Automatic annotation (TrEMBL):
Gene3D superfamilies: Jelly Rolls. The lineage of its organism: Bacteria, Deltaproteobacteria, Bradymonadales, Lujinxingiaceae, Lujinxingia. It comes from Lujinxingia sediminis. This is Cupin domain-containing protein. It comes from the Bacteria.
């Protein structure tokens, strides 16, 4: 699968145009989940946590994550691992696309 093609599809999607956010699960197996997410600039995914270790790989745009003890900015090409149960939010500083990978619990 071509993630750049998916990102372009997302930006043209009516749901993204209306809501500023769209996601699609790319892989869902008993031991792994991979999701691609497009988030419009100045949109935020509210604070949450995952019960597994995750990685966030920014494909395009810029993201800011608020962690309990610091803020982290991700630009295109950056990858951030997060430990299980770590509270965080995700804010798009500009139109962004990222891949979320979740391990098993």
């Amino acid at each position: 699968m071509d993630l750049n093609d998916l990102a372009a599809e997302f930006r043209a999607d009516d749901l993204y145009q209306r809501k500023g956010q769209i996601a699609r699960t790319l892989v869902h197996t008993p031991d792994l989940r991979v999701v691609i997410i497009a988030l419009a600039g100045d949109r935020t995914i509210a604070e949450h946590h995952a019960s597994a270790t995750v990685t966030i790989h920014c494909l395009s745009g810029r993201l800011r994550l608020q962690l309990p003890d610091r803020q982290v900015e991700l630009a295109a090409g950056n990858l951030l691992p997060l430990g299980r149960d770590l509270p965080h939010d995700v804010h798009a500083l500009e139109d962004s696309v990222f891949v979320l990978t979740l391990g098993t619990t």
